[in-house]
Each structure stands twice: as C-alpha cells, then as structure tokens.
Amino acid sequence: MLFSRVGAISKKQPHDSNEIIFSRAQIASMRERDSALIETWAQRQSSVAKLRLLKADKAVEILSDCVNLETEFRDTLIFDKVYPNYNLLCSTRNIAKEKQKLFHKSLADFYESIAS
Fold it and tell me: What is the DSSP string of 51-96?
C-alpha cells in the first residue's frame, strides 16, 4: 500500500536521481497511506499470535522479516524523510514480493502438514 503510493509518485521523477523531492500534497498522500497501514497492525499482531498458537514457526519467522522490511522502509520515509528513487523503490518492492511469496509458501506447507 505504502509502496504503491511512493512508487506512483517517484515514477514521475528521474528513476536514478539521488535527490527525490515530493510536494506537500504527495507527502500528505503518503501519510494517509501510512495511517491506513498503522490501522492494520492490531490485526497483524492477532494473526501472528494465532500462527504461534498453531506452531507455524516458519511462517511467523518469515512474517517477521516482512515486518522488519516494512519498518525500515517506513522509518526512512516517514521519520527520516528520505525518499527513494524509482529504481531503489522497485528493488525494495521486489524484495518485499519475494518475502511475501515465501510467507505464502510457508503457510501452504504448514496447512498441508496439518491436513495430512
């Protein structure tokens, strides 16, 4: 969600620029997406707790990696006010997508193991 908003904004600037400047409206738009992200944290924590109860440890570990990536990206963007160029954003987004695939696979493997 936050990735897509930043991507849409940074795509309009030089893709390899070292200095990315966002307008106030663009920053407000990012903060709006950030607020929506924050609202999901309680649900995520509930999901993690349920996975732990089920002993889906691998899924919890991978989800933790996803959360760490999200936290690093969010800290850089929201608190440090350092905005990635489009190329860097695409690289980070690809890492996030790979982690998401690993998470989904670990869930599928776990559910398969309890079904048999």
Answer: HHHTT-HHHHHHHHHHHHHHHHHHIIIIIS-----HHHHHHHHHHH
Q: Are 89 and 7 in contact (CB under 8 A)?
A: yes
Q: What is the pLDDT of residue 111?
A: 94
Is the pLDDT at 9 greater than 90? The verdict is no
CA distances from 41 to 35, 36, 44, 71 (A): 10, 9, 5, 12
List the end-to-end C-alpha distance of the chain, in Å, as a whole number.
Answer: 36
* Boundaries of every domain in the chain: 2-115
Kind and range of the H or E run holding 110:
helix 86-115
CA 111 from centre of chain: 24
CA distance 17 to 39: 32
**So what's the pLDDT on residue 73?**
92
If one counts every other C-beta atom within 10 angstroms of the C-beta of residue 106, the result is 19
